[in-house]
Amino acid sequence: MTDATAGTDQTTTGSPATTDAKGGMIAADGTPLKKSLSRALRRQKMRALLLIAPLLLFVLVTFIAPIADMLFRSVENQIVRETLPRTVAALSDYDAGGDELPGDAVFEAAYYDVFFAAERKLHTRLGSRLNYEQTGASSLFRKSGRGIDDIGEVYQDQFEDLDERWDEARPWAELMGDPEWIAAQDAWSEDDGAMPPFELRDGIRDVLPRTAMAYETFARFMQTEEEDSPLEEEPWTVVHTALYQDISENGVAGYSGPGADRLQAVEALIASPDFETIRFQDGFEEIDEDWVDPEIWKTIKTYSPPYTSGYFLNAVDAQKTADGPALRDEDERIYGLLFKRTLFMSMVITISCILLAYPIAYLLSNLPMRTANLLMILVLLPFWTSLLVRTSAWKVMLQQQGVINDVLVWLGLVGDADRLVMINNQFGTIVAMTHILLPFMILPMYSVMSTIPPSYVRAAKSLGATNWTTFWRVYFPQSVPGIGAGSILVFILAIGYYITPEIVGGTTGTFISNRIAYHISSSLNWGLAAALGAILLAAVLILYWAYDRIVGIDNVKLGG
């Protein structure tokens, strides 16, 4: 090496690199070569990431996010705790394993929770959720939403008879509201935008705690949900109930603020022997006797945690009880049967597709290219026809008065009175789905078979092998990757089908996917549908893993 080149070297990119005093390589811009190469590598990775970012985003939005949402819905159970917060807290010490009713505190908490939920129209959603676990809960909460006012009206009517101002909006607002808020609300107009948020008057919460809670809930609901002024709307009956409870327990002898004279008159009225009261338990019993059945309270407590395993237990024909998971009655176990039927029929459909597709793919791969392309059009032709039309056509052909039975009767193979039942059962589902999924088996097989060199077969025959030996020991092993690819594709498609089984399957030919579709679109039990879907996904992944262990996923090819 000459003196002119002794201190220089050449990088892989062609730019000169020198060495520093310590012998380290330095790039042309003066930075250490290692750092420069790392920076260039990061830029390349960033450019590659930007190129695939749209695809990653698409996969995230359309595949990963829905699966994550499904898994979350299968355990999410916030609605009970959010709709009945006081009741859930009051039930914390309730023994759900016994046969006793909860105490008065639970019925009181349920009164406030159900009343507020009914005003927000949330009680029906809660009833639907609990109805998944206990039949009749939905109608119970709907009925309670209509009748919960009756409890408060017992006190409202008596207070109104004492003083009409107890049924007017302004006196209530002056008793409960902050004077500055009242002035701001009076000055408010629609042009000002949102109303000034309601504020309680200082000290009123200490004197009338329940009443303050109930009136504050009412006032803010009116402002935000109804967009009405609390100064112009009379309060709910629950506020009168709360007022009765506060005065009967604590009294108002030391109160001297606004409305003190009216509160003292109410205290005297409550102390009189003629004052009518009603226990919360009795009020709920008048609404519906199911409220004095311990089962509804057990159900509320059992499903009060924010997350639950109940959906997954239901999906495997079990249920969540106070004593732990337990199997349902034998006549209620349907999902295990549906899972087994789905797996069995999907396997049968896959095998039938293999048996039908193999000779077709073999024929197409060994015909001249021009002829094979023309015949391939016939294979692809079903894709140009609606799935619903193809399935409906099989319904017409397979029914007892359909084309196939008419031909069999005409040929004398079947008597007119003994027509075959080929629809609304497993046979109809297998036939229709085999026809629909057959192209998905033919295409991978054909793709692999078309790459098998014909010289291999000719060589085997020239060495004395028979046609069968040539096929079985030379041709067939090379076509196995196509069978594997087609089998995985057809099986996964079959296990998730629901339109075709719904139309031609009847009661014995439907899949678990039909039940998932039912819970999503009809019963609206999305949690159970998500749990069933998660189990189905897990089953597919396990079968995929087993296939990889036995056959090897590397042996699956789509051609080439």
What does this 3D model show about the protein?
- The chain has helices at 33-73, 78-83, 85-90, 104-119, 123-131, 137-147, 149-162, 169-176, 179-187, 204-207, 209-226, 237-250, 260-271, 280-287, 294-302, 310-315, 335-366, 369-380, 387-398, 403-410, 426-449, 454-462, 467-495, 499-504, 512-521, 526-550, and strands spanning 8-10, 16-19, 25-26, 318-321, 324-327.
- The protein is mainly alpha-helical.
- The chain folds into four domains: 3-73, no CATH class; 82-148 and 281-325, no CATH class; 166-271, no CATH class; 335-555, MetI-like fold.
- A hairpin with a 5-residue loop joins strand 1 (8-10) and strand 2 (16-19).
- Helix 17 packs across helix 23, helix 21 (426-449) packs across helix 23 and helix 25 packs antiparallel against helix 26 (526-550).
- The chain is elongated.
- The model is unreliable at 1-15 (pLDDT under 50).
Helix-strand blueprint:
Layout: E1 8-10, E2 16-19, E3 25-26, H1 33-73, H2 78-83, H3 85-90, H4 104-119, H5 123-131, H6 137-147, H7 149-162, H8 169-176, H9 179-187, H10 204-207, H11 209-226, H12 237-250, H13 260-271, H14 280-287, H15 294-302, H16 310-315, E4 318-321, E5 324-327, H17 335-366, H18 369-380, H19 387-398, H20 403-410, H21 426-449, H22 454-462, H23 467-495, H24 499-504, H25 512-521, H26 526-550
Antiparallel strand pairs: 1-2, 2-3, 4-5
Structural class: mainly alpha
Whole-number average pLDDT? 88
E-strand count = 5
Assign a percent range to the helix content: 55-70%
Largest sheet: 3 strands, antiparallel
CATH-scheme architecture of the largest domain: Orthogonal Bundle
CATH superfamily of the largest domain: MetI-like
Per the CATH scheme, the topology name of the largest domain is MetI-like fold
State the end-to-end distance: 51 Å
User: Which stretches are low in confidence, meaning pLDDT under 50 for 5 or more residues running?
Assistant: 1-15
Residue share in β-strands: under 5%
Number of helices: 26
CATH class of the largest domain, please? Mainly Alpha
* Backbone CA Rg: 37 Å
Outline type: elongated
